[in-house]
């Protein structure tokens, strides 16, 4: 099977298995999604979703959060991973949104990365989810699953994985494919004990063909 055929088959099976695939983070506005994604770094979506209702009630937009101190924000997010640094990032990002962007989250990925606490992955998530951009955020799930299936080979960095995936996935499908890979990694192709017996890709997966080895 050629790489083009592999991608075509994998995408078709994902479409059949998961016709609806979207972020599991709860949000109401682009600003709230940005906040949730910043909080989700090295933290589960489930935990973030427990924290954000009260946080968004107190600070529903950038203008409200820009008025808050880091310590005030910390009290709402202290149960997530790295709460002190994330509190600092949220306060600073809100202030920059107000001062530089009129309180609105910019749709441009490069401009978004100017915000404190916003790297390429976070910017790509927001761009794909709320602005419909053909962006492929690569987290640990996307990186692992792409390698295991064989969509990427010898990819050493998230950026390499991103570039390979957007090269072979049709532009209109890139945002949805991002969710497919994340959800597959979260619930089926798990890091320690992938559920290969329950996987609809096991017959074409490189990981399975190698006897469950992640070796390239």
List the helices and strands and how they pair.
Layout: H1 3-17, H2 30-40, H3 45-58, H4 62-66, H5 70-77, H6 83-101, H7 109-112, H8 120-131, H9 140-149, H10 158-168, H11 174-187, H12 206-209
Helix pairs in contact: 2-3, 2-8, 5-6, 9-11
Written account of the structure:
With 216 residues, the protein is mostly helical. It has two domains: 3-21 and 136-209, Helix-hairpin-Helix base-excision DNA repair enzymes (C-terminal) (Endonuclease Iii, domain 2), CATH 1.10.1670.10; 30-131, Hypothetical protein, domain 2 (Endonuclease III, domain 1). Helix content is 59%, strand content 0%. The protein contains twelve helices and no strands. The protein has helices at residues 3-17, 30-40, 45-58, 62-66, 70-77, 83-101, 109-112, 120-131, 140-149, 158-168, 174-187, 206-209. It is elongated, with a radius of gyration of 18 Å. The relative contact order is 0.12.
The total beta strand count reads: 0
- Overall SS class: mainly alpha
Average pLDDT rating: 94
Question: Considering DSSP H and I runs of 4 or more, what fraction of the residues is helical?
Answer: 55-70%
Shape call? elongated
Main sheet record: none
Q: Could you name the ranges where pLDDT drops below 50 across 5 or more consecutive residues?
A: none
How far is the N terminus from the C terminus? 17 Å
Which architecture of the largest domain per CATH?
Orthogonal Bundle
Q: If you consult CATH, what is the topology of the largest domain?
A: Endonuclease III, domain 1
Kindly estimate the percentage of residues that lie in beta strands according to DSSP: under 5%
Number of individual domains: 2
Mind telling me the C-alpha Rg? 18 Å
Continuous helix count: 12
Q: In CATH, what is the class of the largest domain? A: Mainly Alpha
């Amino acid at each position: 099977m050629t790489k083009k055929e592999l991608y075509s088959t994998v995408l078709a099976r994902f479409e059949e298995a998961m016709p609806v695939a979207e972020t599991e983070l709860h949000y109401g506005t682009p600003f709230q999604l940005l906040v949730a994604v910043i909080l989700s770094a090295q933290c589960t979506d489930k935990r973030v979703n427990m924290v954000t209702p009260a946080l968004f009630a107190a600070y529903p937009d950038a203008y409200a959060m820009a008025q808050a101190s880091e310590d005030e924000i910390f009290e709402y997010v202290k149960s997530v991973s790295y709460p002190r640094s994330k509190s600092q990032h949220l306060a600073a990002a809100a202030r920059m949104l107000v001062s530089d962007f009129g309180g609105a989250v910019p749709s441009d990925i490069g401009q978004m990365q100017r915000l404190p606490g916003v790297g390429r992955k976070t910017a790509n998530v927001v761009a794909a989810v709320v602005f419909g951009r053909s962006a492929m955020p690569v987290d640990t799930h996307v990186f692992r699953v792409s390698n295991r299936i064989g969509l990427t080979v010898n990819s050493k960095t998230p950026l390499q994985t991103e570039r390979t995936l957007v090269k072979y996935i049709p532009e209109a499908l890139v945002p949805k494919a991002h969710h497919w890979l994340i959800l597959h990694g979260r619930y089926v192709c798990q890091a320690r004990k992938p559920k290969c017996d329950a996987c609809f890709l096991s017959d074409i997966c490189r990981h399975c063909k190698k006897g469950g080895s992640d070796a390239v």
